[in-house]
Amino acid sequence: MPNMQMNKTPMKEQAPEIRRTNWLEVACGYTPEEAVSEAQRCLNCKNMPCVNGCPVQVRIPEFISHVAKGDFEGAYAVIRETNALPAVCGRVCPQETQCESKCVRGIKGESVGIGRLERFCADYCADKRPAPEKAAPKGKKVAVVGSGPSGLTCAADLAKRGYDVTVFEALHTAGGVLVYGIPEFRLPKSIVSEEVGELEKLGVKIETDVVVGRTETVDELFDEGFEAVFIGSGAGLPRFMGIPGEDGNGVYSANEFLTRINLMKAYRDDYATPIKHHRRVAVVGGGNVAMDAARCAARLGAEKVYIVYRRGEAELPARREEVHHAKEEGIEFCLLTNPTSINTDEKGRVSSVTCVRMELGEPDASGRRRPVAVAGSEFDIEVDAVVIAVGTAPNPLIRMTTEGLETNRHGCIVTEEDGVTTTRSGVYAGGDAVTGAATVILAMGAGRTAARRIDEFLSGGKSAD
Amino acid sequence: MFLIKEKKILNQNTVSMTVEAPRIAAKARPGQFVILRGDEKGERVPLTIAGYDPAAGTVTVIFQAVGASTTKLAELPEGGMLCDIVGPLGRASELDGIKRAAVIGGGLGCAIAYPQAKYLHDIGASVDIVAGFRNMDIIILEEEMKAACDRLTILTDDGSNGRKGLVTDGLKELLDGGAKYDVVIVIGPPIMMKFVCKLTKEYGIPTVVSMNPIMIDGTGMCGGCRVSVGGEMKFACVDGPDFDGHQVDFDELMKRNTMYRDEEQHDCNLLRAAKELEHHA
């Protein structure tokens, strides 16, 4: 008999006033009892609508039924079969728009907490993982460019099929956006390094400090004996707004701000990277990256942190949960507000940001109502830092140095309908480098598809999936 | 980990470090840079490549121990290990086809100007070098520069080497003496580059400058290295580091470079205090 409780089993969280002062994880995870109780809410639907909502098609009802029986290791094994990074996905996937949005329990009441259960299984099994099974070596080398979610997934799937895989990472630590972008309090970095360690156990080689497009070109990788290349170089190029004052001291791209904090650990006294401890910070943008930046600014000790977003609450692209957490932590939302200039003092330091009120007009190409400035509504917000989190574009280094690799006017790599096969034979791509800034799980889905295509390409036939 | 094959103290606080990094050595061209990190908790420090030897698989950087991170880097011994070195980053300087060039270096900028002069000299261009230093004690690469040009002028701010003046004085003298250049290449402190550019603009000579702004990743990701060139925002790491000197907004660059001065000073003082304690222990 399923547990017919209407709402998800709650997950413990650090209290807002406490967590604002530390970098520990906000959500504390389920206990085994809580996990079993939540798993028992699953109706084990025959047609498995939730699985269709998952970009990597985790067999959700199957793993949940293991959890319901208290067989957590069995559950984890099921997840691992299709998901290379369960501990990551359980934390950062937007389940509410994916698997959980299809859950039958969500029609009346709340959906099953699939993400929470996935996270629980991964955490429970963190020190109980069986040694990964290695396939017979195929004797073929594949290069993976970038060690973010798409690259790690592609590498794992290829290694499991017996390919000799080398991952090239430009930064000094593997993980891509999982280490430089997503903050510690949402995704502890130890989890990422454990996942990378699992990959190495599968035989994947990881070479940090190699910038493909500079240190090596894609052509040189082929010359060195790699027979296929997967490009998962992400969308790392930050966009600025093009308003006066963006050169001021105290204006950051979200990438710079987050990288200093997450990758370079600037918030810790034992690391050398400098960071300013700003008093009043405006973060421009309404996505998850903006929420991350705002919550980091608060943890660095800012008295006031604003989210400045040109549309309304309903249009915020960030996950509801992130918005909710940010509000709890005292982040102030200036909605329907758009910066028009950043003002600086005589030393070039940010002193305020001039904004204009917006109202929503007709829907634009994205289907969201277009914000229009209200004439004469300018006002200043006193701040000493502005973080620009209005999006990123794909990194240009690979397209600048790879002949025959077509990109579109946004700089995204052009692919066939499968989303991964590029215009250059033997070169596959996925993740933000193809789609522009999107989610971790979509990138992982692309990494999986690419691994399948690469296998087909190198074995001259259909891939057994 | 990367082996420090050779380390030379050029003067009181200027160090030359030759690092084993075959991949970078094979690819490096004049004008490009590397980012290095001494240890796991160190800062990423961008430094322009001062020399490279593909056969030996080494790259050389020259830097001044000015902040906490460079001071710590400078303490690493020959035979020791660097945690990270990544590169070559940035676009290479466009030097092919140049027939007559003046290469201007200011202080440590000479370490970057020298490979450019050498490259031009090696491809048969006529090269004049004008190098400026604060005083004669910190002159670096004198012999190397001499061997890489037709005429070398070294000036000091205080005249301690017998020739007092700024690099602009040296360049003006050459120009007024009838020297003709296709291009002037300037590398040094922003204020120096600004005034050389002002001079060459009067003479109508195309001028290339090499930017060395604050940056983290060096691959276009952080946007910290943004500079205004011709009113447009450029990233020094992917669009540069070389830019048309007549288009660069140097005042903005100088302001941006002061961003972390307080923090650096603070860290530096801490380091100094720690060292003194060590000394007394």
Short description:
The complex is a heterodimer of chains A (465) and B (281). With 465 residues, chain A is α/β, with parallel strands linked by helices.
How far is the N terminus from the C terminus of chain A? 35 Å
Mean pLDDT of chain A: 93
**What structural category characterises the helix and strand content of chain A?**
alpha/beta
SS strand fraction of chain A: 15-25%
Order of helices and strands of chain B: EEHEEEHEEEHEHEHEHEEEHEHH
Mean pLDDT of chain B: 89
Distance between the termini of chain B: 32 Å
CATH architecture field of the domain at 92-183 in chain B: 3-Layer(aba) Sandwich
Our Rg estimate of chain B from Cα atoms comes to: 18 Å
The geometry of chain B reads as globular
Taking the sheet with the most strands of chain A, its summary is: 5 strands, parallel
Based on the structure, what is the oligomeric state of the protein chains? heterodimer
Mind sketching the topology for me?
The complex is a heterodimer of chains A (465) and B (281).
Chain A: E1 12-13, H1 16-19, E2 27-29, H2 32-39, H3 49-52, H4 60-68, H5 72-82, H6 86-92, H7 114-124, E3 141-145, H8 149-160, E4 164-168, H9 177-180, H10 189-201, E5 205-207, H11 218-223, E6 226-231, E7 237-238, E8 251-253, H12 254-263, E9 280-284, H13 288-299, E10 304-308, H14 320-328, E11 332-334, E12 337-344, E13 350-363, E14 369-373, E15 379-382, E16 385-388, E17 392-393, H15 397-401, E18 427-429, H16 432-435, H17 440-459
Parallel strand pairs in A: 3-4, 3-6, 4-5, 6-18, 8-16, 9-10, 9-16, 10-11
Antiparallel strand pairs in A: 1-2, 7-17, 12-13, 13-14, 13-15
Chain B: E1 2-11, E2 14-20, H1 22-27, E3 33-37, E4 45-53, E5 58-64, H2 68-75, E6 81-82, E7 84-89, E8 100-106, H3 110-122, E9 126-133, H4 142-146, E10 151-156, H5 167-176, E11 183-187, H6 190-203, E12 207-210, E13 226-229, E14 232-235, H7 236-239, E15 242-244, H8 250-257, H9 261-280
Parallel strand pairs in B: 8-9, 8-11, 9-10, 11-12
Antiparallel strand pairs in B: 1-2, 1-6, 2-5, 3-4, 3-7, 4-5, 12-15, 13-14
Helix pairs in contact in B: 5-6, 6-8
